[in-house]
Amino acid sequence: MNVSNPVIARIVEAKVRPLGAAPAIVHTAPKLAIAAIRHGQRRIPAIHLAVAWAAMHTDQNASAKREVDDE
Known about the structure:
Blueprint lengths: L4 H12 L6 H16 L4 H28 L1
Helix pairs in contact: 1-2, 1-3, 2-3
């Protein structure tokens, strides 16, 4: 089954938006998944990779903001 890039992008965005990610991360995560697929990664692991990347960066942003708020 051939899944187009916009479909992958919509899937990744739907999984990343509820994380409370910044707009730049929401915009970049689908590109990461598509790039991984183009470089030989299978679709589902590429989607998981992009969502994990977004979650990691969202968590880092949140913890950095908490550190600033604590000071």
